[in-house]
Design goal:
- By secondary structure, this protein is of the alpha+beta class.
- It contains 21 helices and 31 strands.
- Strands 1, 2, 3, 4 and 5 form a five-stranded antiparallel sheet that branches. Strands 23, 24, 25, 26 and 27 form a five-stranded antiparallel sheet that branches.
- The termini are far apart.
């Protein structure tokens, strides 16, 4: 290997390593598989443009082009060596890029990212399309980067022209292409290949001619300096040294002059973007799959390169022009100089990279030329300003990252490479955070979750912002050897990432709770596990606790949000929580409606009639109906019958009743929705109606709740109490073809999944299985024994957890993803051993302690979600106490 070849390798190696790492990581940085391949191809093109510009761009940037031309080597030989190394480097990058995408495809097929939308055939087709496009883009990028660099000899200009020219050419070709041919994907692909071949041949030929005939002689027409514009001059006034501007204004003027190339590139991008909008108007309705539609829709993303250009120039170009020493000799503090640089970088970066493209697309939408990516439906909260916030934040982050890279660099291209390396590192770190914030769902086993994505970003965003600001300032103001500076930056970044990981883990897992007592102080025991109360949570959010002496305590549960997709229960108000008048209650039904008035529908917001059955078989009801008022404090006996056994709510205006002779009755009016406020206010109450029997059967054994009330016969068949006419016709409908066995199943909690404890103390899970047979779908009832121990008292479902209460007053839980994925051994749910009852509510657990306290143990029993801010608390949260003075 000759010294010249070694020199060329050393010239390309830093950029080549950065681009290679970028292309390897890119396919894994996008969550959805279709986005992964298409966006990776776009990043591949961007990386190869940088590599192609670097081949001759570093020669011009470092001032070594004249020495290169004076070497005792034929120009043809120099050209061949450079091109061979460049092409080999590009194909090695493509090989790594191809291998990484292959692994991404295999991973996606094995673990489909979006099984409802993407099939393996679709993924493979998209993969081969993206790889073919990437190979064609390789030719375009290498050819364009060579001829633009040799023609303009200015890196920023060559970079932008290499990016924009092929895109505009393809856009114009698509515009003049007949509509029928434009919809033919095979023809479009062939045209794309032909265009790449012609452009590549022309670009290589032009670049070769420019290099072979290049002359590096003194320029006699003056110094070409983009940073000196006529509008900055003072009309040729006296050259005497006079201080015409204050320090801040002078520094600001100098920074704007330094960004002159950025203004020129921004103006060129603005002009081409306006052309794209005009073409959108002229072309009219475009086929979404056409090349023109894809370019027009995504053209705005080119503006995101502007923050890299602005930030990469602000410090590195001053060092390249040897202005740093003179800069620091000015009678202005370094802090103020850096502040001006930071202000200009962030302002221009956000202006060019965020506001300009967004305002252009928003203006085009007002003219009737909308971009689908900037419509309200593409943003989570259905507002266009969410898109603005996202683009502005992204452009600000790129600006900050680029000024940090510029503080470590000696010229623009080097700053661009450091930005890519930093971006790759942050992308890998973000992937790391995402993986360890995933905990599984109802279909996949739970994995280790160290933090949530929100907490990680909440810690990472300010920490990384402060870090890069501090490093950029320190790199700018201090002079010391480059290796030491790089080492210090790597240590600072590594330490910050460790801090983010440790901080996110501590915050998400509520580390402060480990310093708090797990079991709070309890009062003296007033309830016993030997004679436990009956705690129930009806589907209308009513919590009822029937004590052994027959008293019933009632309140309503509400959900309080504690992060996305997670909430924990709380009681509605202490004003409502109280015992029903009297005692010896066997069954109580209370209805609560959440009011709404939409279109012509009206519903009462609040509690309706309270109905109860006492142990002597008498029926009781609220004396009055307050249309939303709490009416449990005044109940009166209805009728003289003493053969009532059980009551359950059907809807807002009726209940069903079971008598001791096993007959089923309906009481009230079959009116689910009140169509006007006048009707609601005129509701007379249940006491003005008379119960009537449903059917003639006398083999009913129990009634229960499941959205709509239902009942079970002695033969085990389940019947739904549906809408009735005035005579009760069609009021019963058989739910399924199965019979429910054994009779120990309580209160029909089992339509779906339900847990129950048999008389022998064993714990069981009941569920239904749908099977397709001739004639339709057949639903069968199954039972699964969860535990063979015989010391269980009660059980419930709380999200994807099965929670059970032992006779010793302790709580235990099983993780249940599905019927086939239920943990074999239970885990203790806290150290407390004074629980007497429990119930499940909206994925949470509500339990009753022996002192009468109501607690929620959401942290231990809730079905966690990867988008929750914090892990639910491991400590029980007190809701109320049955025996507080205000509850009596």
């Amino acid at each position: 290997m000759t010294r010249f070849v070694k020199k060329e390798i050393r010239l390309l190696l830093p950029v080549w390593c950065s681009i290679f790492a970028l292309e390897i990581v890119t396919p894994w940085m996008f969550p959805w598989i279709l986005e992964s391949f298409n966006l990776a191809a776009a990043v591949f093109f961007l990386g190869l443009v940088v590599l192609a510009v670097d081949s001759f761009g570093r020669e011009f940037s470092l001032g070594t082009f004249q020495n290169l031309m004076s070497q005792p080597i034929e120009r043809t030989k120099i050209w061949q060596t450079k091109i061979k190394l460049l092409v080999w480097g590009a194909f090695l990058i493509f090989a790594g890029f191809f291998a990484s995408n292959c692994l991404r495809l295999l991973f996606a097929i094995a673990y489909v990212d979006d099984p409802w939308r993407v099939t393996s055939g679709t993924m493979q087709s998209d993969f081969f399309s993206a790889m073919g496009s990437s190979l064609v883009l390789l030719v375009i990028a290498i050819s364009g980067g060579l001829w633009t660099t040799l023609l303009f000899r200015q890196i920023a200009a060559a970079f932008w022209i290499t990016l924009l020219l092929p895109i505009l050419a393809l856009l114009l070709l698509s515009f003049f292409l007949p509509e029928k041919l434009g919809e033919n994907q095979l023809f479009v692909n062939l045209l794309f290949v032909v265009f790449a071949g012609v452009y590549g041949w022309w670009g290589f030929r032009l670049a070769r001619q420019l290099f072979l005939h290049a002359e590096d002689v003194a320029w006699t027409g003056g110094v070409i300096d983009f940073s000196r514009w006529r509008y900055f001059e003072r009309d040729g006034r006296s050259a005497k040294s006079s201080r015409r501007l204050r320090p801040f204004a002078a520094l600001l003027k100098k920074e704007l002059q330094l960004q002159s190339v950025s203004f020129i590139c921004g103006g060129a991008l603005l002009a081409t973007h306006l052309v794209v909008i005009v073409l959108r108007k002229v072309a009219g309705q475009m086929n979404p799959a056409s090349t023109m539609a894809v370019i027009v829709q995504n053209y705005w993303a080119l503006w995101l390169v502007m923050p890299l250009l602005v930030g990469g120039t602000v410090i590195a170009e001053e060092r390249k022009l040897n202005m740093t020493d003179a800069q620091f000799c000015l009678p202005v503090s370094r802090r103020k100089q850096f502040g001006v640089k930071l202000m200009v970088t962030m302002t221009l970066g956000v202006l060019f990279g965020g506001l300009t493209p967004f305002l252009l697309e928003l203006g085009s939408a007002d003219l009737g030329l909308p971009n689908n990516l900037f419509t309200a439906n593409n943003f989570s909260s259905q507002t266009v300003f969410d898109g603005l916030e996202g683009v502005v934040c992204l452009s600000a982050a790129l600006s900050l990252l680029s000024i940090f890279a510029s503080s470590l660099s000696r010229q623009f291209l080097q700053a661009l490479m450091i930005t890519f390396v930093a971006g790759i590192s942050l992308g890998v770190f973000d992937f790391f955070l995402t993986v360890f914030s995933f905990h599984g769902n109802n279909y996949q086993p739970e994995t280790l979750q160290l933090w949530s994505w929100q907490v990680a970003m909440f810690v990472a965003a300010p920490a990384l912002t402060a870090l890069f600001l501090w490093l950029a300032w320190r790199n700018y103001k201090l002079f010391y050897e480059h290796k030491r500076r790089v080492r210090m930056n790597i240590i600072a970044i590594g330490g910050t990432l460790v801090f983010i990981v440790a901080g996110s883990t501590a915050i998400y897992n509520r580390a402060w709770e480990y310093f708090e007592p797990v079991a709070p102080a309890y009062g003296p025991a007033k309830l016993s596990i030997a004679n436990p109360p009956d705690l129930r949570i009806e589907d209308n959010n009513i919590l009822s606790v029937r004590l052994p002496d027959g008293r019933v305590w009632l309140d309503r549960l509400e959900l309080q949000e504690a992060g996305n997709h997670f909430s924990f229960p709380m009681l509605a108000s202490a004003d409502f929580a109280k015992f029903i008048s009297g005692s010896n209650w066997m069954s109580v039904a209370v209805r609560y409606n959440e009011g709404y008035n939409r279109q012509n529908y009206y519903q009462v917001d609040g509690y309706l009639d309270t109905v109860g059955v006492q142990s002597n078989g008498t029926l009781w009801v609220s004396v009055r109906s307050d249309n939303g008022g709490w009416s449990v404090d005044q109940l009166a006996q209805f009728g003289d019958n003493s053969d009532w056994q059980q009551v359950a709510r059907v809807d807002a205006t009726s209940v069903i009743l079971l008598k001791t002779n096993d007959t089923l009755w309906r009481w009230g009016k079959d009116q689910f929705v009140w169509h006007s406020a006048a009707v609601a206010k005129s509701w007379p109450g249940l006491h003005t109606f008379q119960p009537f029997q449903l059917g003639t059967n006398s083999d009913w054994v129990a009634i229960g709740k499941r959205g709509d009330s239902f009942a079970r016969k002695r033969d085990g068949s389940v019947w739904e109490v549906s809408h009735l006419d005035a005579n009760g016709v069609d009021g019963l409908r058989r739910m399924t073809n199965f019979n429910l066995v054994p009779p120990e199943v309580p209160q029909f909690q089992f339509l779906g999944w339900a847990t129950y404890v048999r008389k022998d103390g064993t714990l069981w899970l009941s569920f239904f299985v749908n099977s397709v047979k001739r004639g339709g779908v057949v639903e069968s009832f199954r039972q699964l024994q969860i535990s063979h121990e015989t010391n269980w008292l009660s059980a419930t479902l709380a999200g994807s957890w099965i929670v059970a209460l032992r006779t010793d007053g302790t709580l235990w839980k099983w993780k249940a993803y599905s019927i086939d994925h239920i943990s074999k051994a239970p885990e203790p749910l806290g150290p407390q051993s004074n629980w007497v009852a429990l119930g499940g509510f909206a994925g949470n657990l509500v339990s009753l302690s022996a002192d009468g306290g109501l607690w929620t143990l959401s942290g231990s029993a809730a079905d966690l979600h990867p988008e929750t801010w914090l892990k639910p608390s491991r400590l029980p949260v007190r809701l109320n106490n049955l025996f507080n003075a205000e509850n009596n």
